[in-house]
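ok here's Phosphoribosylformylglycinamidine synthase subunit PurQ:
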Amino acid sequence: MAGLGTPLIADLSGPAPDAGLAGARVGVVTFPGTLDDRDAARAVTLAGGTPVSLWYADEDLQGVDAVILPGGFSYGDYLRAGAIARFAPIMAPIIDGANAAGTSGSAPLPVLGICNGFQMLTESHLLPGSMIKNERLKFLCRDQRLRVENSTTVWTTEFEQGQEIVVPLKNQDGQYVADERTLDALEAEGRVVFRYVGGNPNGSRRDIAGICNAGGNVVGLMPHPEHAVEPGFGADSSASGEVGMRDGTDGLGLFVSALKALVK
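and the structure:
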């Protein structure tokens, strides 16, 4: 684990990340009110890539190969969660990059929106639907079991179709909603990426926890995979078997998936 820094409490016996992935540069955007940017950056590092800090007021993506919009409460969730952040200067090149397929021979930019980042993706229309208050109008924080419904996106190739994972969930505006036509299209096109298992925590339509765009390069989900990447700091459980307290690392696969796709 050389070069990652030594956490205060952790199991350092895990395998070192693949050095061949270090050339993949993943931008992590910080907005006013962002909470999980450092966690997302560490997830990229643990997966083997190189995180690059991006500032919301800039318009330069610094040549990164992918972008993560992390969780938090950008702009205090005024108006609607993600509604103001969607108009931040950094979002223009992100939106252009995500939609770049077929234009000037550019490959589409992989983008992962986590929690507040997912809300930004819906507000910017990179993903359909919207996020509203949780069904019971309360903030939720717990480990959540998910089923991987689509293992072909840029961010999910390390998983098997139908595989279950456990990652932390923490949100207040986590109820995914869309009209029936949109929901039917998402289902028919295989664009539901993650689905809640063992109970719907926030009332999201059809138990949807995450979706993708038609190209599979843009993925948004409400739970936090970046909080389940490091033994000692992860979830208390894992869908792959028994683990020690805080040793669940099921979320690491999202970041490894993207890095391997970028290196290819």
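+1. The helical segments are 37-47, 91-98, 116-123, 180-188, 252-263.
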